[in-house]
Amino acid sequence: MKKFYVCSILMYTLFIAGFVHAESVALLDHKFQFDLPSGFTEMSLEEIQIKYPNGNPPMAAYANPKRSVSIAIVYSQTPLTVDGLDKFKSQMTEVLSRIIPGIEWKKNEIIEIKGKKWVHFEIMSNAIDTDIHNHMFMTDLNGKMLGVNLNATVAEYESMDKDFENVIKSLSVNQGSI
Fold first, then answer.
1. 58-72 pLDDT, tens digit each
2. What order do you get walking across the sheet with 23-27 strand by strand?
3. Domain range for residue 164?
4. Do the Cβ atoms of 144 and 79 come closer than 8 Å?
5. For 122-133, how does the pLDDT look when each residue is reduced to its tens digit (9 = 90+)?
6. Interatomic CA distance for residues 142 and 124, integer angstroms
7. Could you tell me where the DSSP H helices lie in the chain?
8. Core-most of 34, 39, 115, 154, by most CB within 10 Å?
9. 148: in domain
10. Is 90 domain-assigned?
11. 60 burial class (0-12, 13-18, 19+ CB within 10 angstroms)?
12. Residue 8 CB burial class (10 angstroms; 0-12, 13-18, ≥19)
């Protein structure tokens, strides 16, 4: 009987451990929050500049230890309201289709997460040395565009799929002045 209790406690602990994230991140005066997968750490300014060399780096980025899977956050001066999400989605679809050679659209939709509407693009694209699987989420925060980009190499995406799902479910926006 004692073995049964020990096994039960062990199984429960392992079950719960699968739902624990290493850290909850709060940005923009706690107006935006999300959970990081275990093992992810904040990227240094130097790492961000190398990964995003086009002169428009994210305000924050987090990555796995190998730096091959990342989550980037952008808070842009681009005006955006919840009423403008449909038009914004159409415009972004057109722009991304033009500027990303070989883009493969998996999802192009407006979804709701925790009562907040988000534009969601799931795309596959080619980088210089590998293929990339991206989830891009965009919404409004105080009349400006808030963006979240989760990306992994195609080779690593399957192992990150559940972690990405947990990050997506945790996205939380609280309107108010920043």
1. 999 999 999 999 999
2. 23-27, 32-36, 172-173
3. 22-173
4. yes
5. 999 988 788 999
6. 30
7. 2-17, 45-51, 85-99, 154-170
8. 34
9. yes
10. yes
11. middle
12. exposed
Number of structural domains (the chain) is 1
Residues 6+ apart with CB under 8 A from 70: 43, 51, 61, 62, 63, 64, 149, 150, 151, 152
* DSSP conformation class of 165: H
Q: Which residues of 62-95 are buried (b: 16+ CB within 10 A; e: fewer)?
A: bbbeeeebbbbbbbeeeebeeeebeebbeebeee
Q: What is the CATH number of the domain that holds 90?
A: 3.40.1000.10
Residue 125 token pair:
């694209």
Six token digits for residue 54: 């086009």
Token reading at 37: 């997968």
Q: How confident is the model at residue 177 (pLDDT cuts 50, 70, 90)?
A: low
H-assigned helices in 18-107 = 45-51, 85-99
Residue 39, in any domain of the structure: yes
* CA–CA dist 152, 83 (Å, integer): 31
Q: Which residues contact 85 (CB under 8 A, 6 or more apart)?
A: 110, 117, 118, 119, 139, 140
User: Is there a domain that residue 14 lies in?
Assistant: no
